[in-house]
UniProtKB/TrEMBL annotation, chain A:
<feature type="transmembrane region" description="Helical">
    <location>
        <begin position="169"/>
        <end position="196"/>
    </location>
</feature>
<feature type="transmembrane region" description="Helical">
    <location>
        <begin position="233"/>
        <end position="252"/>
    </location>
</feature>
<feature type="transmembrane region" description="Helical">
    <location>
        <begin position="272"/>
        <end position="293"/>
    </location>
</feature>
<feature type="transmembrane region" description="Helical">
    <location>
        <begin position="457"/>
        <end position="481"/>
    </location>
</feature>
<keyword id="KW-0813">Transport</keyword>
<dbReference type="GO" id="GO:0098719">
    <property type="term" value="P:sodium ion import across plasma membrane"/>
</dbReference>
<keyword id="KW-0915">Sodium</keyword>
<dbReference type="GO" id="GO:0000139">
    <property type="term" value="C:Golgi membrane"/>
</dbReference>
<feature type="transmembrane region" description="Helical">
    <location>
        <begin position="141"/>
        <end position="157"/>
    </location>
</feature>
Automatic annotation (TrEMBL), chain B:
<comment type="similarity">
    <text>Belongs to the monovalent cation:proton antiporter 1 (CPA1) transporter (TC 2.A.36) family.</text>
</comment>
<feature type="domain" description="Cation/H+ exchanger transmembrane">
    <location>
        <begin position="103"/>
        <end position="487"/>
    </location>
</feature>
<feature type="transmembrane region" description="Helical">
    <location>
        <begin position="320"/>
        <end position="346"/>
    </location>
</feature>
<feature type="transmembrane region" description="Helical">
    <location>
        <begin position="146"/>
        <end position="162"/>
    </location>
</feature>
<dbReference type="GO" id="GO:0015386">
    <property type="term" value="F:potassium:proton antiporter activity"/>
</dbReference>
<keyword id="KW-0472">Membrane</keyword>
<protein>
    <recommendedName>
        <fullName>Sodium/hydrogen exchanger</fullName>
    </recommendedName>
</protein>
<keyword id="KW-0406">Ion transport</keyword>
<feature type="transmembrane region" description="Helical">
    <location>
        <begin position="367"/>
        <end position="387"/>
    </location>
</feature>
Length: 570, 590
């Protein structure tokens, strides 16, 4: 008893001496407890609604466990084996590409072809059903394959360049995507209306337009690395393609709510859009800040395994929370990743930093490669319903709608831009580089509306557009640019490996990069953000790095040298 | 917890209470936030316009919905799945922080798998009370997903971090205990249950059902076993004996389970079919494991993939898990395959990696295994509270007694046999007792029970509930009670059991092992090398592994040594500077 008393006195003394921070934390904790109790009570007071259909399912403990026969598991095992082996093959393929400086093709095209070959092989040998059982459905696609890719994109983004270009990026991503979706959707609706292509209803056409306007960061980055454009433009396009996915998904959801008989009012899409956009951002920031705070204030870094496990979990948490709350997981995980990279990563032990970086990169790489393989497989193993005219027209519309996005917006931006303008050539590259990819395809898999024929047409057309943009635009850009303009061709460094793996992912995203990025570089526009960051958030959320900073500086130099040496053998 | 006060007096009071107070607000804040998030989720669930939370989902939870399935409810079910996963992720991260705090403060003398089970029970209770257990049920893996995604990382890590030198020195005894012992346990248990059933004192199983049940219950869990063994501080030999046994034993139990399961039902094959399929599965899986890891080692040796660590790590991880799926695809035992693959991969392929990938792959494998293990224990707790059980108390009681008896029938006679052929290091009575006591059951047994064959629904329910009871009994009573009992029974045993144990010690134990992996392990007595070791050194090692040049070897070994030291010391204060300094020699070998 005496012991306990002494301890409680100690604790209260400690609390007083620790001052406002403890008070704030405890106050917040009390507030959240009260709130959660209130919410819980509110919920408990609600009466349960009995549902005759699912009541047995609720009480049936084996509802989640579906009987599977042995064969099913074997099939699944075989299917996964095919996928893993193909992936291994692709890893080796891109290794050889990088090694032999084979630049004319971005390696995503190789993956697509690998997928096509495997798909054909499986179909010819009659084993397509085994692979089919291992195909992810749209849900699994979105829950397990997309998040790592997007996370890695946000995590490895150079925050400084991104924030410098924040306004043009947002303009292209938000306004530009809406324009693209509307132009494409309107166009395909009109075409169908005049009886030329497949007939879409109005909101179906708009939904289709919004899914097709998702520019794929993966493919885009691959082609951009091969082109050696300047860094500003690089981040402009990369930032756009990343954010754009989130916008496109939000648009897709808002429009798809309008399909069907019980159509809500016109203002609902706008509200949904705002809710999803803001909500996801808030969720992303909150979870990552919380994670950073926990990493800072516990000594979790003494045990790297626990640390890495924790970090992995909180990295993907925003995605699932957002999905659960009907927001955009992609948006949430993107924001979360950027925040985590900024505040959370410096709190890790060095082992943790190294391992987590490598792990995120490798998982993202596998995810990306898988997506392209999947596209190739989908081409050969699905039953398609090609509508040639619709396909042709929509390819045309894709190009047109991208043009109506880039050129007018670039004109507007150039007027207000004091720095280096977006040149004619750059605009052309931006227009050309709007490759479509995984997100568009995944969205198309579950096209709403209940009309089976429309859904098939949408899937096939989307697949055609994706393959066209990747193969023709992605593969042909280099040679076209060389033909069109000689000064463009000189800018293309033939010795760059087409692989994003070594150029973008490894070099740019150094462990030291994050530390570098908050060296104050005040520009008038976003200085309040920087001040908020430097004065409040960084000290609150990130471990004091005074001592190891010197270490970092040394390592940075060493790392830079190591990098140089590494480039030579290529 | 009354253990709390005792522990406190053991430690240096000043630093301890200070440390604790520093974490107290954080812990409270974290707890509050988790609670808040859960409440938020529950509340928003309740306010859903579609009145019934599980309507859209019911019947839709088919893991193999074809790609082009219709689904207006797909969107809904994605939200449900998102919820479920969010809940589980939060629970897991909560577990991590909890296990860290426990290890930091030595709150009570329990292995941390126990605390995970309790957390799982609480989460399950909350879910059930709030009526959204169906949502969480979405995110609960079914048996298939359990075996395809949760078990492989655990087993792989077990094989990967096995200390080869110790393992091979003990391989004779390990194989005897794992193969013969498991068969004895399964037969003893199964026949006992069958007899009890015919005497009508417990639930009546048919013969092959009883044997199948016996096979699944005889799978000793490496995770739980390791946790308790680290707490006991037994000698290294015994440690590897039991650890090795529990790893190999899983594979044997699964093979037995499948062979017996074939005999249930009307279209029963001949009696010799089980034996054939046992041999086929066993040998085939080992061959696949050997081939894939040899291939991986060869590719890593001959291509300088190490120039691109991302590609290298991706390739390594893919090759690590491929034997599992391949074996499953060919109808063999994935666990056996991935276990063999893991052991060989660590031995031959690991030295071919670049240093960066060596470190990061180690931690990745470990973290993934840690997460899945934790999930398994949380899942056990959740299963206890969210499923509808059919407890048959007589059956449960007899099953627990049989579990103890059959383990005894395995350990005591076999160690007498083994002792005859062991040179100086006999297994003494005390160690036999520990081995008997440490047969904790865990994830594998439970996962197998989920899909008990035979088509009789009642039997299946009884099997699931009984297995869950056995698992929880062994984990909680045997796992939690061993230390006090040993302290009571024999004072010399208590002396070896350290009070100041680290509860995350199974992690640290693995750290040590993994760092030993891929290095030239010191071979103390050259004379005792078996033919396997000689074959390895003359043929396999040079063929599959890069001849490490001296400088590379030295710096790599030094890095690992430093890392190993750090994680071995574990709890002691590590300044960031300290951590930073250990990477000094790192860039060199790249």
């Amino acid at each position: 008893m005496e012991d306990i008393r002494r301890r409680s006195v100690q604790i209260s003394n400690q609390i007083v001496s620790q001052g406002w921070r403890t008070v704030v934390i405890l106050g917040l904790a009390a507030l959240t407890i009260v709130l959660s109790l209130a919410l819980g009570i509110q919920y408990l007071l609600k009466e349960d609604i009995d549902c005759p259909i699912c009541q047995p399912a609720l009480n049936d403990y084996d509802a989640p466990f579906v009987e599977v026969d042995e064969n099913q598991q074997e099939k699944l095992g075989l299917g996964i084996t095919y996928f893993i082996l193909t992936l291994c093959f692709c890893v080796l393929g891109s290794y050889f590409l990088a090694r032999n400086s084979f630049t004319t093709l971005p390696d995503c095209i190789i993956y697509v072809f690998a997928g096509i070959i495997v798909g054909t092989g499986l179909r010819l040998t009659g084993r397509a059903d085994a692979a089919g059982s291992a195909f992810p459905n749209q849900q699994e696609f979105f829950l397990f394959i997309i998040p790592p890719i997007i996370f890695e994109a946000g995590y490895s983004m150079n925050k400084q360049s991104f924030f410098e270009e924040a306004i043009p990026i947002f303009l292209f991503a938000v306004v530009g995507t809406i324009i693209t979706a509307l132009v494409f959707g309107g166009g395909i609706f009109l075409v169908g209306f005049f009886g030329i292509g497949h007939y879409f209803r109005f909101y179906e056409a708009l939904t289709f337009g919004s899914l097709i306007s998702a520019v794929d960061p993966v493919a885009t980055i691959a082609i951009f690395n091969a082109m050696k454009v300047n860094k500003t433009l690089h981040y402009l396009v990369f930032g756009e393609s990343v954010l754009n996915d989130a916008v496109a998904i939000v648009l897709y959801r808002s429009f798809s709510e309008m399909i069907g008989p019980d159509k809500p009012g016109w203002y609902l899409p706008v509200l949904t859009f705002l809710y999803i956009f803001i909500g996801s951002t808030v969720v992303g920031i909150t979870t990552s800040c919380l994670a950073a705070f926990i990493l800072k204030s516990t000594e979790l870094r003494q045990n790297p395994t626990l640390e890495l496990s924790f970090y992995l979990l909180v990295a993907f948490l925003p995605y699932f929370i957002c999905e659960g709350l009907k927001m955009s997981g992609i948006m949430g995980i993107l924001i979360g990743a950027m925040t985590l990279g900024h505040y959370g990563m410096p709190n890790l032990s060095e082992t943790g930093q190294l391992s987590s970086n490598q792990l995120f990169k490798s998982i993202a790489y596998c995810g990306e490669a898988f997506v392209f393989i999947y596209l190739g497989l989908a081409l050969t193993s699905f039953n398609h319903s090609w509508n040639v005219i619709t396909v042709l027209i929509s390819i045309l519309l894709v190009l047109i709608s991208r043009a109506t996005n880039i050129y007018p917006l670039a004109f507007i931006i150039n007027r207000y831009r004091r720095r280096e303008k977006i040149s004619q050539k750059t605009q052309f590259i931006m227009w050309f580089s709007g490759l479509r990819g995984a997100i568009a395809f995944a969205l198309s898999l579950n096209f709403p509306g209940g009309n089976e024929e429309t859904r098939r047409v949408v899937i096939s057309t989307t697949l055609a557009i994706i393959l066209f943009t990747i193969i023709v635009l992605g593969g042909g850009t280099l040679s076209i640019l060389q033909l069109l303009r000689v000064e463009g061709a000189t800018a293309i460094n033939l010795s760059t490996a087409a692989s994003r793996v070594d150029v973008d992912r490894f070099e740019e995203m150094d462990v030291t990069d994050v530390n570098e990025s908050y060296i104050p570089n005040l520009t008038a526009k976003n200085s309040w953000m920087r001040r908020l960051d430097a004065a409040i958030l960084k000290p609150l959320l990130t471990r004091d790095l005074v001592e190891p900073m010197e270490d970092f500086a040394e390592h940075e130099q060493e790392g830079a040298e190591g990098e140089e040496e590494e480039e030579v053998p290529f | 917890m009354d253990g709390d006060g005792r522990d406190e007096s053991m430690e240096d009071p000043g630093s301890w209470s200070q440390k604790r107070q520093a974490y107290l607000p954080v812990a409270i804040a974290f707890l509050a936030l988790v609670l808040f998030a859960l409440a938020l989720i529950i509340a928003t669930k309740g306010s859903r316009p579609s009145g019934c939370p599980s309507c859209n989902c019911a019947g839709e939870f088919d893991p193999d919905i074809g790609l082009l399935t219709q689904g207006g409810s797909e969107e809904e079910s994605q939200n449900e799945l998102g919820f479920g996963l969010a809940i589980f992720i939060m629970t897991l991260s909560f577990c991590i922080v909890a296990s860290f705090l426990i290890s930091e403060h030595s709150f009570f003398n329990l292995p941390d798998c126990l605390s995970y089970v309790f957390i799982g029970i609480m989460i399950g209770l909350i879910l059930r009370l709030s009526g959204i257990s169906a949502t969480a049920g979405y995110a609960l893996p079914n048996q298939e997903q359990f075996f395809l995604f949760i078990i492989p990382p655990i087993i792989f890590e077990a094989g990967y971090s096995l200390s080869k030198a110790d393992f091979f020195r003990q391989s004779g005894s390990i194989l005897v205990f794992a193969v013969v012992g498991t068969i004895i346990t399964a037969l003893f248990w199964g026949l006992g249950m069958y007899l009890l059933g015919t005497l009508a004192v417990s639930y009546k199983f048919r013969l092959w059902e009883a044997l199948t049940f016996g096979a699944l219950v005889s799978a000793v869990d490496p995770v739980a076993t390791l946790a308790i063994f680290n707490a006991l501080k037994v000698n290294r030999t015994l440690h590897y004996l039991v650890f090795g046994e529990s790893v190999v034993n899983d594979a044997v139990a699964i093979v037995l389970y499948h062979t017996f399961a074939q005999m249930i039902g009307s279209s029963r094959p001949h009696w010799y079919v089980p034996i054939f399929s046992f041999v086929y599965i066993f040998a085939g899986s080992v061959v696949i494991g050997v081939l894939t890891s040899a291939l991986a080692a060869l590719i890593l040796k001959h291509l300088s993939l190490s120039k691109q660590p991302t590609l290298e790590l991706a390739f390594y991880m893919l090759m690590a898990y491929v034997p599992y799926f391949m074996c499953e695809g060919f109808g063999m035992s994935g666990i056996m395959g991935i276990l063999t693959g893991g052991v060989l991969l660590a031995h031959y392929a690991h030295p071919n990696l670049s240093t960066v990938t060596q470190i990061s792959s180690n931690y990745c494998f470990k973290s993934i295994a840690y997460l899945t293990e934790t999930f398994v224990f949380v899942y056990l707790g959740t299963a206890l509270t969210t499923f509808n059980h059919s407890w048959d108390s007589a059956t449960v009681a007899f099953a627990i007694v049989l579990t103890l008896a059959s383990r005894a029938a395995n350990i005591f006679p076999l160690s007498r046999v083994v002792n005859k052929y062991r040179g100086n290091a006999k297994i003494d009575a005390k160690n036999q007792f520990i081995m008997w006591f440490s047969g904790l059951r865990g994830a594998i047994a439970f996962a197998l029970s989920l899909n008990f064959p035979g088509g009789n629904e009642v039997t299946r329910r009884v099997v699931i509930s009984t297995t869950l009871a056995i698992v929880l009994f062994t984990v909680i009573v045997l796992g939690g009670g061993t230390l006090p009992i040993l302290q009571l029974l024999r004072v010399e045993g208590a002396a070896t059991a350290s009070k100041n144990q680290k509860h995350v010690s199974h992690l640290e134990g693995r750290d040590m092992d993994t760092f030993a992996a891929g290095q030239e392990h010191p071979t103390p007595d050259e004379g005792r090398k078996g033919w396997l070791e000689r074959m390895d050194e003359i043929y396999f090692k040079p063929w599959l592994t890069n001849p490490a040049d001296a400088a590379n070897q030295r710096s790599t070994a030094a890095t690992f040594q430093r890392l190993a030291n750090l994680s071995g010391e574990g709890g002691e204060a590590l300044t960031p500077h300290h951590i930073g300094s250990m990477f000094d020699g790192l860039e060199e070998p790249m």
